[in-house]
Amino acid sequence: MRPKKLNRTKAQRRALMRGLVTAVLEHEQVETTEAKAKAARPLVEKMITLGKRGDLHSRRRVASYVNDDSVVKKVFDVLAERYADRPGGYTRVLKKGPRRGDGSPMVIVELV
Question: How is residue 3 annotated by DSSP?
């Protein structure tokens, strides 16, 4: 499956996803557009799954993608324990309605 381009270059898209994934893992709830949420959801799930593995290689993979060291620590210490017996589906996307300025559909991405 090809990733959504989101009308950005590859570098801009990568930076956007890294920031969005970091924000979701840090704050556990983020408001964004529906397209960005659908693109970021599998990445957030993957980071939590790597956190559940708990080995050094997984920690380095998460640290290479997530922008903040405290968020990496949170993934392995807090979130991995919280979802230890859950086989997947760590995120929820709730529709919020259109944005006032341009009518873009807004959603809330949160950890279950």
Answer: P
- Number of domains within the chain: 1
- Whether 108 maps to a domain, the answer reads no
CATH code, domain carrying 22: 3.90.1030.10
What is the crossing angle of helices 34-53 and 56-65, to 10°? 160
> For the residues 51-79, what does the mean pLDDT come to?
96
DSSP state for residue 112 in the 8-state scheme: -
Q: Which domain holds residue 71?
A: 10-27+34-87
- 103 in a structural domain: no
Question: Has this prediction a pTM greater than 0.70?
Answer: yes
Residues 6+ apart with CB under 8 A from 12: none
Let me know: does 46 contact 62? Beta carbons within 8 Å. no
Query: Count of residues for the chain?
Result: 112
For the segment 29-49, what is each residue's pLDDT rounded down to a tens digit? 999 999 999 999 999 999 999
Contact in structure between 17 and 40 (CB atoms under 8 Å): yes
